[in-house]
């Protein structure tokens, strides 16, 4: 009996030591004594942000969960490879604004991963034109177009001023989680914000010619660029790849272009151009291919380069119009 009790006690002791060990390991991980911090970002814009903030810091590794060519992650589904990547992460950086719905349930289950929501506390634009579409659909026959997109427009990184806030939020989060490297994160933050500031100033001066212009966009993301440039989005055509546009909606867009005398259609590489081309053919509007900055290479300046290209395209578009 006594022997059995001793045996039982020692098993319990071993068990508790075992779990103590595990807790301790987790605890050590959370302090991050500079021994390998793995930051995983949800998709490309967050990856570029993190590459800049964690640049040149020994032992801090940034990985992108999705491929750099994945694009917007509206209908993304996690792969087993993604799950492996996530399981090695101590920090996950999200854009927020419901862009990462595909990760929500998984992150809830991953204990010990610290999540930084880069757009925490931000007010989002809503996809007003979506409502508009839905109303129409309810009047007409049922359409396959209605799926579970919410009305929150999460593409905040396309407004440089908002993107700068995201950079600050990410840096604040990393400094809290990894205080040992705070000085370096802050230095990188300052450097990156300085570059973004000059981009912001460029956009501000562009606003003089873009302000008040009415535009049609082929991806919700450009609503944020429009916001920064004082442009008014008359219609956001929802071409997210999986649903073809109905003839009715195309006719409606053509009507709106004529009614508002719209000169610009902003479309982008990742989606088909055929719809824009059709609309272009039927109206006086010109389609311009812009960059949502959701794909690219490993160049940490790719956001800045992409945005500069967008600025050039806009300058050209408005120069053509004023001729
Ligand atoms: Zn998108």
Quick structural overview:
The chain has eleven helices and ten strands. It has 323 residues and is an alpha/beta fold. The chain has a single domain, classed as Rossmann fold (3-Layer(aba) Sandwich), CATH 3.40.50.1980.
Q: DSSP helix count?
A: 11
Total strand count, please?
10
Residue windows where pLDDT falls under 50 for at least 5 positions: 11-31, 128-148
SSE pattern, N- to C-terminal? HEHEHEHEEHEHHEHEHEHEH
Report the radius of gyration as a whole number of Å: 24 Å
Shape: globular
Mean pLDDT across residues = 84
Give a quick account of the main beta sheet: strands, pairing sense, barrel closure. 4 strands, parallel
Considering the chains and any ligands shown, give keywords for the structure:
alpha/beta; 323 residues; binds zinc ion; four-stranded parallel β-sheet; 10 strands; Rossmann fold; 51% helix
Report on this structure.
The chain is an alpha/beta fold. The chain has one domain: Nitrogenase molybdenum iron protein domain (Rossmann fold). Helices cover 51% and strands 13% of the residues. The chain has 11 helices and 10 strands. The strands form 3 sheets. The protein has a 4-stranded parallel β-sheet. The chain has a 4-stranded parallel β-sheet with strand order 8-7-9-10, with helices on both faces. Strands 5-6 form a two-stranded antiparallel sheet. α6 runs antiparallel to α7 and α7 runs parallel beside α11. About 13% of the residues have low confidence. Bound molecules: zinc ion.
């Amino acid at each position: 009996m006594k022997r059995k009790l001793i045996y039982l006690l020692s098993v319990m002791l071993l068990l508790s030591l075992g779990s103590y060990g595990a807790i301790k390991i987790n605890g050590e991980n959370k302090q991050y004594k500079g021994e390998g911090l793995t930051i995983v970002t949800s998709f490309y814009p967050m990856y570029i942000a993190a590459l800049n903030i964690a640049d040149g810091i020994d032992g801090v590794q940034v990985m992108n969960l999705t491929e750099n060519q994945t694009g917007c992650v509206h209908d993304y589904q996690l792969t087993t490879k993604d799950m492996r990547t996530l399981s090695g992460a101590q920090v996950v950086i999200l854009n927020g604004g419901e862009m990462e719905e595909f990760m929500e349930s998984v992150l809830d289950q991953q204990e010990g991963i610290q999540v930084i929501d880069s757009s925490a506390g931000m007010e989002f634009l809503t996809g007003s034109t979506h409502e508009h579409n839905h109303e129409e659909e309810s009047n007409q026959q049922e359409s396959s177009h209605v799926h579970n997109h919410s009305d929150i427009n999460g593409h905040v990184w396309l407004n440089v001023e908002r993107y700068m806030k995201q950079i600050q939020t990410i840096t604040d989060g990393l400094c809290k989680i990894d205080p040992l490297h705070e000085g370096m994160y802050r230095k990188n933050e300052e450097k990156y914000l300085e570059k973004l500031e000059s981009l912001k100033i460029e956009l501000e001066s562009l606003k003089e010619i873009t302000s008040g212009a009415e535009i049609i966009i082929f991806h919700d993301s450009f609503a944020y660029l429009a916001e920064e440039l004082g442009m008014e989005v008359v219609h956001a055509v929802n071409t997210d790849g999986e649903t073809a546009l109905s003839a009715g909606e195309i006719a409606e867009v053509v009507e709106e272009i004529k009614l508002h005398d719209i000169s610009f259609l902003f479309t982008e590489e990742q989606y088909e151009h055929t719809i824009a081309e059709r609309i272009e053919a039927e109206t006086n509007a010109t389609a311009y291919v812009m960059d949502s900055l959701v794909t690219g290479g490993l160049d940490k300046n790719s956001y800045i380069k992409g945005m500069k290209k967008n600025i050039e395209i806009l300058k050209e578009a408005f120069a053509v119009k004023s001729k």
